[in-house]
Structures are given as C-alpha cells and as structure tokens.
Amino acid sequence: MSRQVVRSSKFRHVFGQPAKADQCYEDVRVSQTTWDSGFCAVNPKFVALICEASGGGAFLVLPLGKTGRVDKNVPTVCGHTAPVLDIAWCPHNDNVIASGSEDCTVMVWEIPDGGLTLPLREPVVTLEGHTKRVGIVTWHPTAQNILLSAGCDNVILVWDVGTGAAVLTLGPDVHPDTIYSVDWSRDGALICTSCRDKRVRIIEPRKGTVAAEKDRPHEGTRPVHAVFVSEGKILTTGFSRMSERQVALWDTKHLEEPLSLQELDTSSGVLLPFFDPDTNIVYLCGKGDSSIRYFEITSEAPFLHYLSMFSSKESQRGMGYMPKRGLEVNKCEIARFYKLHERKCEPIAMTVPRKDAVSRLEEEIRKLQTTVQELQKRLDRLEETVQAK
User: Fold this and answer.
1) What are phi and psi of 243, to 5 degrees?
2) Are 154 and 135 contacting, i.e. CB atoms less than 8 angstroms apart?
3) According to a count of CB atoms within 10 Å of the terminal CB, is the N or C end of the chain lower?
4) CB atoms within 10 A of CB 341
5) What pLDDT is attached to residue 330?
6) Are residues 226 and 192 in contact, defined by beta-carbon separation less than 8 angstroms?
7) Is the dihedral of CA 75, 39, 154, 212 positive or negative?
8) Measured between alpha carbons, how far is 236 from 258 in angstroms, rounded to an integer?
9) C-alpha distances in Å from residue 269, one per residue of 36, 238, 317
C-alpha cells in the first residue's frame, strides 16, 4: 500500500469558530432584496448591514462591541428613497461609509464615534451620475477619497468624493450588459470586472482602456464573480454548462486557459470570493449556503489547493469580511466573517490552531494511517489464505 504524501501547509488545519450567542447581533431585520452583494460591511469600529425599511432604503450601523439584542427603534442611516443594494467602509477612515441604492444615487456618510443616537438622513455628499440602480460601490485601496460605483445602466464611474465629481467614466461601450462584479487590484492600478456578456475584463482606469479580457471563463449562464489574487492572477467563480458551481484561477498575461479549474457542487447560490493577500487564502461564501469553503493559492502547480470547509446549520443571507487590522491575532485569528441570518448577524472567526494542537492532530493521523496499513496487511493475508484453499 503506497503512503500518500500530504502537501505541507501552515493553513491545512484552519477552522471556523462561530461566536457565542451573547457575541452575536440579534433581532436585526436583514434586507429581503434580491441582489448578489454581501449586504454587510465591517471594520474595526463598526458593523453595518442593509436592513428592511418601509418607504425607502436604510442600513444599520452598530459599534462592534454592541452585541446582543438590537432595539427595534435603533436609529438607522435612512437617506435613500429606494432599497440600498451595497455598502462599503472607507479603508482610510473608519467613520466613513458609502452606499449604492435603487434610487440611482451613491451617498457617502460620516458615522460619529460611538455610533448613531438619531437617524442619519443627511449624507456628507450625494454622487449623482447613474441613470439606473447602483449595485456596486468599492473604495480605492490606496488613494484617499476615490470611490468606484457600478450601476445597472452598464456604466462604471470613479468619483473624487472630496469634490463630488466623476473623474472617470467607463460607458456601455466597455460593458454592453449588466456588470456583476468589480474589484480593484491591491495597488489600485487595475480594475477587474465581470459582465453579463460572459466576459471578464481587466481595465487600466488611468487610461480608461481594456488591458485584457477573457470570453466565457465559465460556460454557464449564471453570474460570474472575479477578484484579483496574488502575483498578477485573478480568481473567478461561476457555473458550468450543467449548472455545477466552479472556481478557476487565471494568469492575467495568459488568459487562454485557466491555471486551475475545480468543480464544487450543484448548488444555485452565487459564490462570493474574499481574498486574504497575507495568507494567500481565498474564502468562497455562497448566498443561500450554510458553508464557507477556503482554498490556498500557491505559485506552483496545481496553484489552487482546497483546504477545508466551515459548515453550520443555517443558511447565510449575506456576508461581511473584517479587514486584517480588526482581528485578534494573539488568538491566532487569520480572518473573521460576519454571517447574516434572517434575524441575526453572527461573527465567525477563522483560526489557525497552535503548534502543540497541530502536533497532536498529526500524531493522531499517523496512528490512524498505521492502523489502516495493519488492516490492509491482514486483508491481504486473508485473501492469500482464501486463494490457497
């Protein structure tokens, strides 16, 4: 019996730990809107989530430590006149958040330290330029006050929030159909988009030109999401022709064939990818799923390695991802998700077990492998005895 060699990785034993009941945010009415965004945004100060609102759109902002049951009369950010579709915290100022809505506007808000005491109706700035609902908002990772928005008018606008003016417009000539996802590269030099015309594009925003594009990265008709990962690669999630969910890794310089393509399952929920550049781990969270899969990306073939899966009983309505500076690293935490249930927001910590725990686990695995080998030898001897008779 040949002994299988297990690939060496620091993150092979990463596991998800859901928070206890008193550390969750209970009794929040998560939005029922059908849209493929996370519905939740988190930073080291606040957790924000899109909630149900009568007569317009609203989202809830709570101080991170204010866990437990949320009062039904808690003040919300309620300046939009139609449902909110996406929210994003500014990476340079933990008190500033942007929101995109069905009312065709993008609004930027400033949340006071300690959270809201009264409903917030007046934004710092309203950005008007889209003619249809705005489904994606995302901040530039390195340049301050630069915000990108994408609408169902097939237009991407890059805004200077300080002046309230659009500094770049990518019109319907670039994206002829609905834009499914937009992601900045880590240095903000490139934008990666996926579109309903079944193309993934890499765009140079300073020139406003398409640097590279890939037609049909996945054969299915369902939405594709794309994110930048390490070393000039992009990762896409989509569906096969038989509606099986897939994840693929691409080299941006050679988009003819994927570096890796893996089929996952036949679920119908769109997979939202979250990439951690420090550990090279990508987490896949499907809306309507009750699990989070995670993969490690390496520089050698096969490039994309399945690590494990965190599973729970209840399905997720949305997901927020905490920036690395908000984690408890002294507890070996490498990522934290905020899972939206129908009436609850539940933190899930991704933790690397300490070395002594890993050593015990590996010792158990070695014992099990020895037992399997002994059983195999006994089975072989038994087969020889039967054949001899």
Assistant:
1) 65, 30
2) no
3) C
4) 18
5) 84
6) yes
7) positive
8) 10
9) 9, 10, 10
Strands 199-204 and 191-195: antiparallel
- Cis status, amide bond into 302, omega within 30 of 0: yes
Closest C-alpha to 121, from 132, 137, 107: 107
Strand order in the sheet with 225-228: 225-228, 233-239, 245-251, 260-263
The sign of the CA dihedral 373, 374, 375, 381 is positive
What Cα–Cα distance (Å) separates residue 16 from each residue in 286, 307, 332, 351? Answer: 16, 12, 12, 6
Model pLDDT for residues 271-316, shown as the tens digit of each residue:
999 999 999 999 999 888 889 999 999 988 889 999 999 998 888 8
- Number of C-beta neighbours around residue 62 at 10 A: 18
Are 340 and 40 in contact by the 8 Å Cβ rule? The answer is: yes
Task: List Cβ<8 Å contacts ≥24 apart for 233-236.
Answer: 233/259, 233/297, 233/303, 234/192, 234/200, 234/202, 235/273, 235/275, 235/282, 235/297, 235/304, 236/194, 236/200
CA angle 263–314–66, rounded 5-degree value: 120
SS3 356: helix
Q: What is the pLDDT of residue 2?
A: 41
pLDDT, tens only, 181-228: 999 999 999 999 999 999 999 999 988 899 999 999 999 888 999 999
* Structural tokens at position 132: 């249809």
Q: Rounded to an integer, what distance in angstroms lies between the CA atom of residue 180 and that of residue 36?
A: 8
- Name every residue whose Cβ is closer than 8 Å to that of residue 163 and which is 6 or more positions away in sequence: none
For residue 173, the one-letter residue type is D
- At 73-107, the pLDDT tens digits run 899 999 999 999 999 999 999 999 999 999 999 99
Span 152-193, pLDDT tens digits: 999 999 999 999 999 999 989 999 999 999 999 999 999 999
State the Cα–Cα distance between residues 265 and 120, nearest whole angstrom: 43
Please state the pTM of the whole predicted model.
Answer: 0.86
Q: Read off φ and ψ for residue 66, nearest 5 degrees.
A: -90, 70
Between strands 291-297 and 271-276, the pairing is: unpaired
Alpha-carbon distance of 189 to 183, in angstroms, equals: 11
